[in-house]
Every structure is written in structure tokens, then in C-alpha cells.
Amino acid sequence: MYEIIVTLAVIVGCIPCIVHSWRVRGKWTTAAFFVGGFIFGIVRENIVALFPTLYTYPNHPLYIGAAPLMMGFGWSASFYASWAVAERILEGFAPKWKDSRWMVPFVTAIITALLSIPVEVAAGASQTQWWIWPIGAITVLWEMPAIVPLGWGGGAFLFILFLREIMTRVKPEKRAALLFVVSTLMVIALHLLYVLAVRLVIVLLAG
Amino acid sequence: MAQSDNRVQQSYLLQAVCKGFSKPSLDSFYALVAVVFRVTTVLEDSLPVLAILIVVFSMIGVDVLIIGNALRALTVIPILLVLLLWVFATYRIRRET
User: CA–CA separation, A165 vs A162, rounded Å?
Assistant: First the structure.
């Protein structure tokens, strides 16, 4: 119920991210990030729909395949906003790490994980049910499963790591942007493997 | 890098525009335009934070008004602390530059 709220919040929240990226990072990085993010969200969630042991998305207003349209904006908006905040925090408090290959994605991952908590706590309630986790999921905060912050954080880490590496190393920018958009398929595969591995560890630890 | 290029371009543009003025109020005009540029830069910097705030306040609204459990709204505290760090970092960077 009330899926329109999360759909609008995510799509409206994505707009300032796109504007910021366009102004600060230029058109090709922006295109790479948000086209790649859209593909990441839609393709990933369609693959997830094939796994009955993961979550499902009932009652959303618009779908592409089995993925709600909002997922095309949700992942990229949360990754982008967290990335920009992470860069600023590193620049202000740890300038020697502000361009670090590993530290920037790592801090981005932590911020994304913290952002996931209020979203998932609202999403899983019986009054909303924007997405539904299986009954056996190990929960830590109301209906939020333990895997959630780790899943969001891991996605942010992989996405930002790949984006920064490709946009830095490959020239010209147009080719780098295209390469990144294609490579999001690899990011999806790595992220799903990571999520399944983390879930196994949680089950072993909690079981 | 692109942002500092923009600021340099804005500065050149400002100088070019102001060459056409010779009134005593020119200093005030410079000051006003400088404030506008400053505010624009701050607003531009804040866009990702705005995105997070849109989502955070939407979730608070859902927790309180739809789910009816204000305790759930406390889950926004960690991300709000991160945004507070962002404010301190921004202040520190601006003070140094």
C-alpha cells in the first residue's frame, strides 16, 4: 500500500542528484552513472524475481518486467547522494583519502547502508509492504532483515569502485561511459553473488 | 575540477558584465552578484543532501502518519548524523579556501 509515496520520493530525490552530477562531473559521467544505475536497478530486480527465496514487489504502480520502475532510480539516487556526501566528508576530514581507490567506495558504502535503514524499516511494515521479505529472513529491526544494510552497502561499493576505475582509466569519456554501462551487468552479477554469500554467513552465524 | 572551471567562467562573466557600469553603486552591485554566486554554489553543493533529505522526511512521514509508530522514525538518526558531518566538512573546506 502507499507505493506511490516511495516511488515519488525516489524519483524526485533522483532529480537533484542528476543536476548535481551534470554540473560537477560533466555529461558523460552523469550519463554513465544514471543510465548504468537504471540498468543496474531494473536488470538486478528482474533477476531477483527469479529467486523465490529473496524479496518480492507487489502492488507497485509501474513495472518493467518484474521490477518496479522506481528501482531504476532508487539504487542510483542512493548511490550518487552517498558518493557525493562521502567525497565531501573525506575532503573535509581526511584529505589524503579523498581520491583513494578503495576508501571512497568504502565510505560511500557505509553511508548507503545507513540510508537503507529508515527506508527498509518503512518498507517492510504491514501497513506498507513496498517489498516483502520471505518469512524465514533473519530480522534485526522491526521487519528489516540483517542482510539489508550489507546488501545496500555492498552494491554501493561495487558500483562506485567500477565507475571511478573506468571513468579514470578509459579515454575518451564517451567510450568510458559506454563501457561502464555495459559493465553494470558484471556489477549485478558480483553483487548478487555477494548478497548470497553474506546471507549464507548470516544464516550460519544466527542459526 | 569542472566546478572550479565554472566558477572561473562565472568570474570572467561577472567582470565582463560589470565593465559596462560606471555608477557609484557598482561596489554594491558586485557585492550582490557575489552573494548570488555564493548562494548558488552552496545550493548546488547541497543537492545530494537535498536528495537524502527528501527520502528521509518521506520515510519519517510514513512511519508517523501511516504506520503510526513514531519510534520507527528514530532510524533516521544515523543518516542525519552523517549529514551533520557533511555540514562540518563543508564549513571546514570553505573556511580553508
Answer: 5
